[in-house]
Design brief:
Layout lengths: L14 H16 L6 E4 L2 H9 L2 H7 L3 E4 L4 H4 L2 H13 L3 E5 L23 E4 L3 H10 L4 E8 L4 H13 L5 E8 L2 H10 L6 E5 H7 L5 H7 L3 E4 L3 H17 L4 E3 L11 H10 E8 L3 E10 L8 H4 L16 H5 L31 H9 L12
Parallel strand pairs: 1-2, 1-7, 3-4, 3-5, 5-6, 7-8, 8-9
Antiparallel strand pairs: 6-11, 10-11
Helix pairs in contact: 1-11, 2-15, 7-12
């Protein structure tokens, strides 16, 4: 029998290590009298928690993990999806390039996969921003619009591609920006005071770009502990244990439990290309509403590749969530996915009703795939 080659992830999935960390978490939890609710900001953390059964194990240890707004597919409001749909449905000879999950998001108009395109137009799935620019170079007779969606991990490559299009004189290329910054919605959630959050797990890949200090305000202003965590089971448990130890010590900070990837300064080169091409703007998040300086738009010097400017797009602010969808409440951490009345019935992975059931980072898809058969509980706001 052929031996399995050891993966780099194996040490972080080792059952003995995971058991020991869970034991330490349970022991530390005993010394904390109040309820302990930790928000994992990142959708990849949510997926790992469900996939490996950590959400249930942590609940058994007395730690409640709640999902946050860390899924770009989920938080992009229908107004931007509506603009993308109108582009491909009403403009001839247009290629709308997008990441695969973005083409499946259901809206009142349908999705990019179901909307009939105008003559000569089409939707193309790409795997990187560079793929979309290559489409424009290979199809000079078409207008290519890249539906650029992402957080700080994806944004630098989108900014680089936009700059390359301008420098290369690719005049049939533009970007429809759906670019989101993670720290502002964390502040917005804390300012609402709805969640009774004891601490946070911060996304390792985002923090690898922006640096841990971007979250200092959580500890300094709101006195909440937090830890930067990677995406393997042991990474997440180390982050949870750090948060509990900070609570016990009464000294909140931003601990870096992902030092093998995240440096103290983040990635200055990635931030530099973002700053050169993009500028902060107020932005609407699904479920959270308008959050100051939480999005990015193309700077005036790059208006030639700004689809909103180039194609004179007007965002329909009345394009809200579909009636009955509670994705917004899931993104705010107010309910578990199973508490939505549509979960598993009218909203399933094969026929999603809302965006949280579309993306691999969506809390609803994770819950349905790895634990959606659990009974529904009353919403936290109803307790």
């Amino acid at each position: 029998m052929k031996e399995r080659r050891m993966s780099k992830a194996d040490p972080y999935r080792d059952k003995t290590t995971i058991g020991a960390l869970l034991g330490k978490i349970a022991e530390r939890r005993k010394s904390l009298p109040s309820s302990c609710r930790i928000m994992e900001v990142c959708g990849t953390h949510t997926m790992t928690l469900h996939r490996f059964g950590l959400k249930r194990m942590l609940a058994d240890a007395g730690v409640e993990m709640i999902a946050g707004p860390g899924c770009p597919v989920c938080i992009t409001p229908d107004a931007i999806h509506d603009a993308a749909l109108r582009l491909v449905a009403q403009r001839e000879n247009t290629i709308l390039a997008a990441f695969g999950d973005m083409t499946r998001v259901p809206t009142a108009r349908g999705s990019l996969q179901t909307t009939p395109p105008a003559p000569g137009s089409q939707v193309r799935i790409v795997y990187s921003p560079a793929d979309s620019l290559d489409l424009a170079r290979r199809h000079p007779d078409k207008d290519v619009v890249f539906f650029g969606a992402g957080f700080e991990t994806t944004i630098p490559s989108i900014a680089y591609t936009a700059a390359a299009a301008v420098a290369g004189g690719v005049k049939n290329y533009s970007v429809l920006p759906a670019l989101w910054l993670i720290p502002p919605p964390v502040r917005a959630i804390l300012e609402t005071g709805q969640n009774r959050i004891a601490g946070f797990l911060y996304p390792g890949h985002v923090t690898a770009v922006i640096g841990p200090r971007a979250f200092d305000f959580v500890a300094e202003e709101f006195k909440r502990p937090g830890a930067v965590a990677g995406f393997e089971p042991a990474d997440i448990l180390l982050g949870v244990l750090s948060v509990l130890e900070q609570i016990a010590a009464g000294r909140p900070r931003v601990a870096n439990e992902y030092a093998r990837v995240v440096g103290p300064e983040g990635n200055p080169a990635a931030r530099a290309i973002m700053d050169r091409v993009l500028e902060p703007a107020d932005a609407v998040w699904r479920g959270l509403g308008l959050i100051p300086r939480s999005g990015l738009t193309l700077r005036p010097d790059y208006a030639a590749v700004d689809a909103i400017v180039k194609h004179d797009l007007v965002l329909n602010t009345n394009a809200g969530d579909r009636p009955g969808c509670r994705c917004g409440d899931v993104l705010k951490g107010l309910i578990e996915p199973t508490e939505c009345g549509l979960f598993g019935t009218r909203c399933r992975p094969d026929l999603p009703f809302g965006p949280c059931m579309v993306s691999a980072e969506g809390a609803c898809l994770s819950a349905h795939t790895y634990g959606g058969d659990r009974p529904k509980r009353k919403g936290r706001h109803e307790r």
